[in-house]
Amino acid sequence: MEEYLPELLQTAAVIVFHVLLRWILVRVVKRFSRQSNRLEHRTGLVIKYIDFGIIFLIVFGLILVWGVQFEDVGFVMSSVFAVIGIAFFAQWSILSNITSGIIMFFTFPYKIGDYIIIHDKEYDFEGTIDDIKGFHTVIKTTKDEIITYPNSLMLQKGVTVVKPDELEDFLHEEDKNVKEQPID
Description:
The chain is of the alpha+beta class. It contains six helices and five strands. The model has no long low-confidence stretch (mean pLDDT about 80).
């Protein structure tokens, strides 16, 4: 037992450090969520990403503590990341959508319940944001259609948020435009 005492102490230190780091990060995210009126399940999604990162760091720290040589870990990690990199190159949108979802949580001016218009080259998507998930945003149109729009495209396209007090006028103006169009 005494021969492993340094490794046991280092293991405890790694775990305690990362648990404290997680606690701090979760408190920061929850405080931000309360201050910006974000929904609880969106906060849970960001906390889940924090948990995955902390678990990865704990495992990596424990590998180093228990005597695996850094060169060996570097070789294994570079091989793993090369395979993952090739797989993600084929599916790069997965990673970019997750990253976009996190960016949208912290910085974007629209939230669940806002009426938005996404200005796309071919077709403008519009409706109320029903949910913002890890990979996509769920938009409900005025015709009760459900649109799932990728988060990475939400960052790339222009988005107009229609203010709640202007929404009724906006929807009535849209109805007038539909009635005034000539029928072929």
